[in-house]
Design a protein that fits this description.
By secondary structure, this protein is an alpha+beta fold. The protein contains 24 helices and eleven strands. About 2% of the residues have low confidence.
């Protein structure tokens, strides 16, 4: 025993701290980090084989996996697109816009993946905001907040709710209703929406990155090769034109033929148009060094690219392997047949050669690629987040069927006709039977990386409880906070909210479940209300862009800075915490243990 903890407890503590450090400060995949933590806890004897791999058979984790298929059915039949198209409308002012946006987003997030909902809405909200004359940065943070607050309104709305309710069922044998968090969640959502409207001056008015890309003449230049130029007949690489000072050759036009990317051994012909991207002043030096002249007509623009090529916008997510690397020093362009044209940071184009820019999280890239290129591949999506408007799904019979399937699943579970897991399986099967999605679409929709994180979170909670860490921390909190249950509940929820700003809310829920459960029992109260409050707390992280995957989805498109979230987020954390504690104790009064 050292400081009251056993050897196994210290192994668990060190493993947890190391795991969170790796997640915060490296780009190692989260699923590998959690798998490594499971391996350490098993190899060192902290957990036996059954305990170490219990997360993979946990009911809540399985429910999450099956729900991916249900969501695929709703997405492929155009349900989400129909909702977006018909609910936003034309509000008269900012308050109306916030209400029109946040309520549908929260409602969808109560039953669907928050990330899916926000990814669908980002481009729509940006275009909508321009029509309303409102800066997108005034709406994108509320969009992300709405998805988080909506997710807590049902057990299936966010993974921490399922994880905590599953652990509660394992511990007590009592199953929580799928709508257990609905009244507290809706109350906190209402408070959150009103708070956003009241605190709207704290929302930044940022220039979106795309504004830096609106006029391509500002960052591309075309040079013409005269018929008597001495470089005619030379290869691009031999003429020193592949990478020039301040930019890069991204396209060459031989009469009517357009080459992009440009091969190194492509010969230069008289009359060629060479399209360069980068710092215009530096690139124009080629007029003197190579004898080129400026083309009389600039044909390379956002709306006028080779019919076989297109310009796309992408954002660098928080855990992208491209962070801190210059694209010109990687094989990214060659591997994906893409050409980097420009880089924007916090709404402004970076004034240096795009290929030499060391990328940061939230940067926006303007890329040229084949017109029919599939940008939804796993390889690309693991490095960049693309926000292209998806083709509108055809609304028809399948749209109605998938909606009815989803509603039936929720109703049967809410009325306790069938357990949630059985309802989810039946709904997924119905989506396949009625062809709302294909088998391939269903399997591709399952995010195995996320499921690994969820399973690892469950195992983490098991280790914290088994080694006595939870009990010791519960006693420590009681020593500091006394025996007042409201004070203890508030203290644990406050710490959980803070921790969730830096780690996965699923991991925070699994980690704080045993602590909250032990504290409630030590006080002599039924843990149920305490856990409802915990569910809301771990899903309400507002103060940092890394607190939720949805925050990072809007971080780049909104042109935000890290501090933008803190300005309004810290106040939102306090407001929602107070609303949470108030409503939970009104709906679920504290009950002494029998």
């Amino acid at each position: 025993m050292f400081l009251g903890f056993t050897l196994h407890a210290w192994i668990t503590i060190i493993t947890v701290l190391a795991m969170f450090t790796i997640l915060l400060f490296t780009r190692v995949r989260a699923d590998l980090v959690f798998l490594g933590a499971i391996g350490i806890l098993y190899v060192t004897g902290v957990l036996d084989a059954k305990e170490a791999f219990s997360g993979f058979s946990n009911t809540s984790v399985i429910v999450i996996g099956v729900l991916f298929v249900v969501i695929a059915g709703l997405t492929n039949t155009g349900v989400l697109q129909w909702i977006v198209k018909n609910l936003l409308g034309q509000p008269r002012n900012y308050s109306g816009a916030v209400l029109r946006m946040m309520i549908p987003v929260a409602a969808l997030s109560s039953f669907l993946s928050n990330t899916t909902v926000v990814a669908l809405f980002v481009n729509i909200v940006k275009m909508w905001s321009k029509k309303l004359g409102i800066s997108p940065s005034k709406l994108l943070i509320p969009l992300s907040y709405a998805s988080g607050m909506g997710g807590v309104c049902t057990l299936i709305g966010t993974p921490p709710n399922l994880i905590i309710s599953g652990l509660y069922a394992d511990k007590t044998g009592q199953v929580m209703n799928v709508l257990a968090t609905t009244i507290p969640g809706v109350f906190c959502l209402a408070v959150g929406v009103l708070s956003i409207i009241a605190l709207r001056k704290l929302l930044p008015d940022r220039q979106t990155p795309e504004t830096a890309f609106q006029d391509t003449k500002e960052y591309t230049v075309e040079l013409l090769v005269p018929s008597d130029n001495p470089n005619i007949g030379k290869r691009i690489i031999d003429a020193g034109l592949k990478n020039v000072e301040g930019g890069k050759l991204i396209e060459i036009i031989h009469f009517d033929a357009i080459l992009s990317p440009v091969p190194d051994d492509e010969p230069i012909l008289g009359g060629d148009r060479l399209v360069f991207a980068g710092q215009i002043e530096q690139i124009l030096k080629l007029r003197d060094t190579h004898g080129f002249v400026i083309a009389t007509e600039h044909v390379f623009s956002m709306s006028e690219v080779d019919t076989n090529r297109k310009l796309v916008t992408a954002h660098v997510p928080m855990h992208s392997p491209l962070i801190h690397r210059a694209l010109g020093r990687t094989t990214f362009e060659k591997d994906h047949n893409m050409t980097l044209v420009a880089v924007a940071r916090q709404g402004n184009r970076v004034e240096e050669s795009p290929h030499m820019v060391r990328l940061r999280a939230g940067d926006t890239l303007l890329l040229e690629c084949p017109k029919n290129m599939n940008i939804n591949t796993k390889s690309l999506q693991s490095q960049l987040t693309f926000f292209e408007t998806e083709p509108e799904q055809k609304i028809g019979r399948s749209t109605l069927i998938s909606t009815l399937i989803m509603i039936t699943m929720v109703v049967l579970s809410a009325l306790n006709v069938l357990p949630l897991l059985q309802c989810a399986f039946l709904a997924a099967a119905a989506m396949l039977i009625f062809r709302c999605c294909t088998g391939d679409q269903a399997m591709k929709s399952i995010n195995w990386d996320i499921l690994m994180v969820f399973a690892g979170s469950v195992v983490l909670g098991t280790a914290i409880q088994k080694t006595g860490i939870a009990e010791r921390m519960a006693y420590g909190i009681l020593d500091v906070c006394g025996s007042n249950p409201l004070v203890v509940m508030t203290a644990i929820c406050l710490v959980a909210t803070f921790i969730t700003e830096f780690i996965s809310n699923t991991a925070a829920g699994a980690m704080f479940f045993p602590i909250m459960f032990e504290a409630a029992e030590k006080l002599g109260y039924e843990p149920y209300p305490f856990l409802i409050a915990l569910m809301i707390s771990v899903s309400c992280s507002f103060a940092t862009p890394i607190g939720s995957p949805t925050h990072m989805l809007v971080y780049g498109p909104g042109g935000y800075r890290f501090s933008d979230f803190m300005r309004i987020g810290l106040l939102m954390n306090i407001i929602i915490l107070a609303a949470n504690i108030l409503i939970v104790n009104l709906v679920y009064p504290l009950t002494p243990l029998q």
